[in-house]
Design a protein that fits this description.
Blueprint lengths: L1 E5 L6 E6 L6 H5 L6 E7 H13 L5 E7 L8 H13 L7 E6 L1 H13 L5 E6 L2 H7 L4 E6 L2 E8 L4 E5 L8 H18 L1 H15 L3 H21 L14 H11 L6 H18 L5 H13 L12 H8 L11 E2 L2 E3 L2 E2 L3 E2 L2 H10 L4
Parallel strand pairs: 2-9, 3-4, 3-5, 5-6, 6-9
Antiparallel strand pairs: 1-2, 7-8, 10-13, 11-12
The chain binds nicotinamide-adenine-dinucleotide and glycine.
């Protein structure tokens, strides 16, 4: 097992990465402070892994909330089911909430933990590649609103992240690819050597080679932990983790939550960001081609949905947490491995990308 640390002073916490960690009761129990434990999961993941987790919790007072599976349920209505359960069972402030699932469950469970009695102990057990390399680390929690993705949320750090790579065996290929989009993002925003490693090892990752996956998870978490430690609440550097996300969130919201997986939408968005960076004269055409090729080789979509036209894109992109005074601000690339901070670009140039990239 590898143990990384997210360094946040007295709120620092470990990320455990390895095989079969879900069976290790000690790992989990050392982070639980009192008897009451609520496990939040969804119907799919609970069917696969809840019994194993519950074996580690014998002796505790355990309740569960099993939400329906899907991004379309990541909203305040379903969040309320978690509060209903916590209150019905009279959970107190020293209770623990464990999120067992992908990014949807992690984001919702984390937000519930942040709000319930102004904050209870929160543990992340991410079960998708995307959640293991990104969403479970760093304390961003949120639900969606019909008008904007992740627009209602809080920063709330977990006490630990348990990334058991063996649970990825049951993840389907489309979800694995979606996770790879966020892995590739780390290479693009600050780790060109990792990007080159991904180019050379993408086939091994898609074939679920255990050593390759372990390396990708570890490098991703190292990158994320470094960035979060430097800028926990996104006053600067952390925004680079949003590469492709303003385009991507527009696709997710515009096409209806769940139509495109988050990672798929981000993959398209990173291609659009690369195209725009090249129109600005920053990124070379060869680098744009490398980026598109790697994402394509990872089994990800690389062109935007044709039904989402430029004006609707712009309308959707105008609801984003990076925007200031109505300006759409984007993360762009100077090169592979060097991202900008949020930057407003000329509307005409953005429109060119939206109208031309992937539309021919
Ligand atoms: P998800 O949570 O919807 O999970 C994807 C699918 O995989 C679901 O159907 C789920 O039931 C299934 N699943 C999960 N684990 C499984 C397993 N081990 N075996 C088989 N099936 C399994 O989606 P996701 O891609 O994990 O996360 C996307 C969400 O994460 C989005 O809502 C996005 O906004 C959020 N996100 C948050 C952050 C953050 O920093 N908080 C970062 C990136 C993404
Ligand atoms: N996934 C973006 C962030 O954690 O900041």
């Amino acid at each position: 097992m590898k143990v990384l640390t997210v360094e946040l002073g007295n709120r620092s916490y470990p990320i455990y990465i390895g095989q079969n960690l879900l069976g290790q009761a000690e790992l989990l129990q050392q982070h639980i402070r009192a008897q009451q434990v609520l496990v939040v999961s969804n119907a799919t993941v609970a069917g696969l892994y809840l019994p194993k987790l519950l074996q580690n919790l014998s002796g505790y007072t355990v309740e569960t909330v099993i939400l329906p599976d899907g991004e379309q349920y990541k909203n305040v209505d379903w969040l309320n089911k978690i509060f209903d359960q916590l209150l019905t069972c009279k959970f107190s402030r020293n209770a623990t909430l464990i999120a067992l699932g992908g990014g949807v469950i992690g984001d919702m469970g984390g937000f519930a933990a942040a709000c319930y009695q102004r904050g209870i102990v929160f543990l992340q057990i991410p079960t998708t590649l995307l959640a293991q390399v990104d969403s479970s680390v760093g304390g961003k929690t949120a639900v969606n609103h019909a008008l904007g993705k992740n627009m209602i949320g809080a920063f709330y750090q977990p006490q630990c992240v348990i990334a058991d790579a063996s649970v990825l065996d049951t993840l389907d290929d489309r979800q694995l690819a979606a996770g790879l989009a966020e892995v590739i993002k780390y290479g693009l925003i600050g780790d060109p050597a990792f990007f080159a490693w991904l180019e050379a090892n993408i086939a091994a990752l898609l074939a679920r080679d255990k050593a390759a996956l372990a390396y990708a998870i570890e490098q991703s978490c190292l990158n994320k932990a470094r960035i979060v430690a430097e800028d926990e609440t996104e006053t600067g550097l952390r925004a680079t983790l949003n590469l492709g996300h303003t385009f991507g969130h527009a696709i997710e919201t515009g096409m209806g939550y769940g139509a495109y997986l988050h990672g798929e939408a981000v993959a398209i968005g990173m291609c659009q960001a690369a195209d725009l960076s090249s129109r600005l004269g920053w990124l070379s055409k060869q680098d744009v081609a490398r980026i598109v090729a790697l994402l394509k080789n990872a089994g990800l979509p690389v062109t935007p949905p044709l039904s989402l036209k430029a004006p609707q894109f712009i309308e959707l992109m105008s609801v984003d947490k990076k925007n200031v005074d109505g300006d759409i601000r984007l993360i762009l690339l100077h090169s592979i491995g060097e991202a900008t901070l949020p930057i407003a670009v000329e509307r005409a140039l953005l429109t060119e990308t939206l109208e031309q990239y992937g539309r021919e």
